[in-house]
Amino acid sequence: MQAIQPISCHYRDYKGLKEQVLDLIEAIRTYLYPEIYGSCNALCELDYRKEKTYYTCRALLHRVIQREEDIEKISQALLEALPEIKRQLDTDIDAAFAGDPAAQSREEIILAYPSFEAVSIYRPAHALYKLHVPILPRMMTEYAHRTTGIDIHPGATIGDHFFIDHGTGVVIGETATLGHHVKIYQGVTIGAKSFQEAEDGSLVKGMKRHPDIGNHVVIYAGTTILGGETQIGDHCVIGGNVWLTHSIKAGETVVAAHEKIEQIKIK
User: Are the C-beta atoms of 222 and 240 separated by less than 8 Å?
Assistant: First the structure.
């Protein structure tokens, strides 16, 4: 696909755009979980839900994209991505149910958990981000940020079985990557250590700035992990209130109180 041409805000107003973004979020989640979201009941026809999502997406894209061919391609691509998004979200539900002894049911996780609220918006926003859609993916995840306190940039890459316990104050930056079976607690920041500047003093955009987190990693509350060169290996445990700007090898535990690294066995 050619580079998307966003509409200039100099000649197009954006009144009502936030409300339309909420309409798209609602349409997508109703498509994915009709027994939970929207006015559609569990027996609502799939074709109806698909059509509603398609036309809601098209109407929204017309607000920020110029070329009709781009709007059509993106709308179709989003529909094609929804089954995979549903599969991933189902693994996120499983991770929450398995990882929280207080969870009574999967329905409770969908309806009540801020982690699922944020991630169920992040995953379709990430699909639109990868399609180079301007403005809208960030508006979607910022809505989730406002309602849950969880700030996930739509550019971040997050694997299956992802769970944020409690959630408030979590930040995951644009170029971060998280593997499968990652569990993090409230107040965790996966952020940038510093920003490269151009000759004119402006910040260089598009650079790798955020850490890579491996598979089967647990990060406890209040921890900050920074830097585009920082890598946390598979099966690591990062204790609470840790400040990390260097990489950790697979299978290690980092304890905050003494900055002690202990080797653990990988099962």
Answer: yes
Tokens 């929804």: give the residue: 82
Number of Cβ atoms within 10 Å of the Cβ of 209 = 22
Alpha-carbon distances, residue 146 vs 5, 53, 141 (angstroms): 28, 23, 9
Q: How far is CA 36 from the centre of its chain?
A: 20
186 and 206 Cβ atoms separated by less than 8 Å? no
3-class DSSP state of 192: coil
Task: State pTM to two decimals.
Answer: 0.90
- State the helix-helix crossing angle for 68-99 and 46-61, rounded to 10 degrees: 120
Neighbours of 37 (CB within 10 A): 18
Residue carrying structure tokens 């535990």? 253
The alpha carbon of residue 152 and the mean position of all alpha carbons in its chain are separated, in whole angstroms, by: 5
Residues 89/126, Cβ–Cβ less than 8 Å: no
Tell me, what amino acid is at 118? A
Reference 68, options 5, 142, 144, 162; nearest CA is: 5
Length, in residues, of the chain: 267
pLDDT digits (tens, 9 = 90+) for 203-256: 778 789 999 999 999 999 999 999 999 999 999 999 999 999 999 999 999 986
Give dist(CA 181, CA 161) in Å, integer.
5
Long-range contacts of 76-79 (CB under 8 A, 24+ apart): 77/127, 77/131, 78/53, 78/124, 78/127, 78/128, 78/131, 79/50, 79/53, 79/54
**Contact indicator for 219, 238 with CB cutoff of 8 Å:** yes
CA distance 12 to 255: 52
Q: How far apart are CA 232 and CA 247, in angstroms?
A: 6
